[in-house]
Design a protein that fits this description.
The protein has six helices and no strands. The chain is mainly α. Helix 3 packs across helix 4 and helix 5 packs across helix 6.
Amino acid sequence: MSAERELPRFRPPHPGEYIRDDILPSLEMTITDLAEHLGVSRASLSELVNGNRSLSIEMAQRLGQAFGNGTRFWVQLQMQRDIWDAEKNSGIKIKLLRQRSGKAA
């Protein structure tokens, strides 16, 4: 199966979308409030929330600790989006390697 067939039909959401659309409203917090809680600048969190910055491992750690869902949850959200973008926009086309018959593995 080609990588293009494995791609989800739609681009996965940016991790910041979850924060902006789900988390901040449910906690009744502003970006400033959450930035202070996380110990980051408002500008840094705002860039993430607005999709202008990718999620760093450090930010994933902070979010994972704050929300109790762990670093991996946040990293996986970013990774899904990064992989989708890379596979959708890449011009890389490599033929599948096949093992030659008669050769030991």
